[in-house]
Amino acid sequence: MPSDYLPILMFMMVATAFGMGALILGEIFRIKRSYPEKLMPYESGNPPVGEPRMRFSVKFYIIAMLFVVFDVEAVFLYPWAIVFDKIGFYAFIEMIIFIVILFVGYIYAWKKEAFTWD
Amino acid sequence: MNDILQSFIGLGSSNPMIKMGIDVVIILVKIAIVVAIALLHVAYATYFERKVMARMQVRIGPTEVGPIGLFQPFADGIKLFFKEDIIPANADKPIFYLSPVIFFAAALTSLAVLPFFKGFVIADINVGLLFLFAMSSIGAYGIVMSGWSSDSKFAFLGGLRSASQVISYEIAMGLSLVGVMIMAGSLNLSDIVTAQHRYPTGMFVIPQFLGFFVFIIAALAETNRLPFDLPEAESELVAGYFTEYSGFRFAMFFLGEYTGMLIMSSIVSLCFLGGWTIPRFVTDILPFLSYVPGIIWFLMKVYAVMFFYYWVRSTFPRYRYDQLMSIGWKLLIPLALFNIVITGIAKAFAKGLL
Amino acid sequence: MLPKLFFGYYAVVITFLSVLIITRKNPVHSVMWMLLLFFHIAGLYLFLNAEFIAAIQVIVYAGAILVLFLFVVLLLNLREELQVKRFVGSWPAGLIIAAGMLAIVVNVIKSFTAAPRGIYSIEYIKNATHTKALGQVLYTEYLFPFEIASLILLVAIIGAIVLAKRKLRS
Fold first, then answer.
1. Given an 8 Å threshold on Cβ–Cβ distance, is C161 in contact with A109?
2. What is the CATH number of the domain that holds C73?
3. Whole domain around residue B110: which residue ranges?
C-alpha cells in the first residue's frame, strides 16, 4: 500500500536534511583560510601531471555489463523464492532450467577470462 | 508504541486531517529516536573498534578523553565539525557537495525498514529486504561520484575500483539471501524473523550456513572493510575516493561507512541469527531467558557481528584487486547459486513436491 | 482528489526531469538527474500498488543500468565535452518526427476501451501482497516467456563479452 511508504519518504527527507543541515551549520563556524596550493589536488606533494580523469581498463565495462545481467537474474529469483510453497513442482524444475541456462553463460564468461584481472 | 505516543500527545480527535497530522508527527518522533540512537551507536562503534583493535595489537587504545577514553567519539566529532572544508579548485562543485550526503543518507535511510524488536519498525513494508539492496546500490553513487568530482587521480581510481567492487559483491549478497527467502517465504524482515522462530533450529544460520558464509564475506566487501578495503588502500591510493575530502564532509563518509556496517550487521542478525528471538531449544532448557527483552538479544547479535568485523580487520592482510574480483565472481556466486538449488530441493522434499 | 494530485506531481516532475537530462552539458549531471527520475518512476509504481516493481525499478535501473551509463560517461573527456554542441544539426527533423509520433499516440488513445475486470483487483493484490501475486502468475501462467528471458540474458552475457574482447584486442 502506498501509505506504508510515507515513513520511508520522510526518513529520506530527514536523512538528507540532517546531512545538508550539518554541513550548512558547519559553514558558519568553521575557519576558512585557503590559498591556491591548498586547493590543488593531492598528488603526494608534487604538482599534478596530466588529466586527472584518465582512461581506464575495458574490464570495468565487462564487469558492469555482467552485473546488469546477473542482477536481473537475481531479480527473477526473489518472487520465485517467496512463492516457492504455492507454485508446485514444475515451477521448481523451470527455475532449475533458468539457473542452468544462465550458468552456461557464466561458464562462458569464466572461460573467456572476463573475471580475470591482470 | 503508536498507542503510547498517541496517548502521550493526548488527542483523540476524529477530524481526519488532524489524525493524519498526528500520524506524521508520530512517525517523525520515531525517526528522530531511531536516528539519534543509531548515530550514538555509530559513534561508539568507532570507539569499540579502536579499543578492540588496540587490545588485539597489545595496545590500550584511546584513554585520554573522559574516563577510559569514553568521550573520544565526541571529541573527534567536534574536531571534524570545526575543521576547514577544502574543495579542490577544479572540482565539480555541486557533485562534490552532494556525494557525501548521498552516501550518508542512503546508509541512514536503510534503518527505516529494520525491526529492532517485536513490533518496532518505522516502515513495515512487504519488500523490506529489496529496499535494503536498493539503498546499498544507491550508496555506490556517493562513492563513484565523489571520486569523479574531486579532480584527483587517486580519488578517481579509488571511486572506480570501489564501484566495481560494490557491484560485483552485490550479486553474491542478493543471491545468498534467496535461500533465506525460500525458507521464510517473505521479503518482510519481521516475517523473516518470526519464520525463523517457527523452525526447530531457531536460526537460519544453521540450515543456511552456505548463504551465511557468502553473505558475511559479501558484506565485508560491500562496506569496503578490510580485507577488501582496496578502494582506500593507503599504500596505493592514499585514501581512495575521499582523498580530497576534509572536515565534516570527510566525517560524512566516515559516518556512512559505519552506519553501513551497522546495517549489514543488523541484516545478518535479522536474516540469519533470528533477530530479537532466541531459538526454542534454548528456552526449553533455560526458560528464564525468554524474559530477556528482545532488543537485548538483537543488540547482542549485532555487536557480535560487529566484533567479527573488527576481528577480521586486525587479523587478515589486504587482498590484491585481482584476488578480490576472483573471490566475488568465481567463488561466492557459484556457492550462492549452489545454496539456492540445495535449499530448493530440501524445501521441495519437505513439502512433498519431489 | 489526492490520487489525481499525486499523479499530477509525478507526471510534471518526470517530464521536467527528462527535459533536464537531455539539456545538461555535463553528462555526469545528466546521470544524477536520471537517478532522481528513476526514483520518481519508482514512486509512481508504488502509487499503483506495485511495490515489487518499484523496488526492482530502483535496484535494476538505478542500481545497475545507470551505473553502466556512469562508467561510459566517466570515460568522456569533460573539458572537450563541455565545448561540444548539445544537439546535432538535424534536430528540427527529430522534432518533426517526435511531433508525428505524438499525433499518432493521441489518435490511438481515443480508441482505447476498458477491458473486462480480471481477478487481480487492487484488493486481491493488497491481500496476497504484490510480490506473491506476481510470482504466482509469472511462474505458472507465464512460464514460457520466463524461460525466454533466461535465453535473452544468456545472449546478453555472450554479446557483452564478444564486444568487449574485440575492443581489447585492437
1. yes
2. 1.20.120.1200
3. 83-350
What CATH number is attached to the domain comprising A49?
1.20.58.1610
CB pairs under 8 A between A and C: 126
- Please check whether residue C39 lies inside any domain of the structure: yes
Q: How confident is the model at residue B215 (pLDDT cuts 50, 70, 90)?
A: very high
pTM, two decimal places: 0.88
Q: Which of B14, B35, B70 is the last residue of a domain?
A: B70
Domain extent for A64: 2-111
> Does a structural domain hold residue C52?
yes
- Judge whether C136 lies within some domain: no
Question: Hey, is the C-beta of B317 within 8 angstroms of any chain C C-beta?
Answer: no
HEC readout, chain B = CHHHHHHHHCCCCCCHHHHHHHHHHHHHHHHHHHHHHHHHHHHHHHHHHHHHHHHHCCCCCCCCCCHHHCCHHHHHHHHHHHCCCCCCCCCCHHHHHHHHHHHHHHHHHHHHHCCCECCECCCCCCCHHHHHHHHHHHHHHHHHHHHHHCCCHHHHHHHHHHHHHHHHHHHHHHHHCHHHHHHHCCCCHHHHHHHHHHCCCCCCCCCCHHHHHHHHHHHHHHCCCCCCCHHHCHHHHCCHHHCCCCHHHHHHHHHHHHHHHHHHHHHHHHHCCCCCCCCHHHHHHCHHHHHCCHHHHHHHHHHHHHHHHHHHHHHCCCCCHHHHHHHHHHHHHHHHHHHHHHHHHHHHHHCCCC
Q: Is B188 on the interface with A (CB under 8 A)?
A: no
In a domain, B317, yes or no: yes
Find the chain C residues whose C-beta atoms sit closer than 8 A to any C-beta of A.
46-47, 49, 51-52, 56, 59-60, 63-65, 67-68, 71-72, 74-75, 77-78, 126, 131-132, 134-136, 138-140, 143, 146-147, 149-151, 153-154, 156-158, 160-161, 164-165, 167-168
Which of A62, A92, A95 should we substitute to test contact with C (largest number of C Cβ atoms within 10 Å)? Answer: A62
How many independent structural domains does chain C possess? 1
Closest chain C C-alpha to A79 CA, distance in angstroms? 5
Q: B289 and B335 share a domain?
A: yes
Q: Does B65 touch chain A (CB under 8 A)?
A: no
pLDDT for residue B195 is more than 80: yes
- The answer to whether position A116 is within a domain reads no
Q: A57 to chain B: which residues are within 8 Å by CB?
A: none
Contact C150 A102 (CB under 8 A): yes
Do B57 and B99 belong together in one domain?
no
Residue B249 pLDDT greater than 80, yes or no = yes
Once rounded to an integer, what is the mean pLDDT over residues B138-148? 85
Number of independent structural domains in chain A: 1
Tens of pLDDT, residue by residue, chain A (118 residues): 667 788 888 888 888 998 888 888 888 887 777 777 777 777 666 777 766 677 777 778 888 888 898 999 889 989 888 888 887 778 888 888 888 998 898 898 888 877 777 6
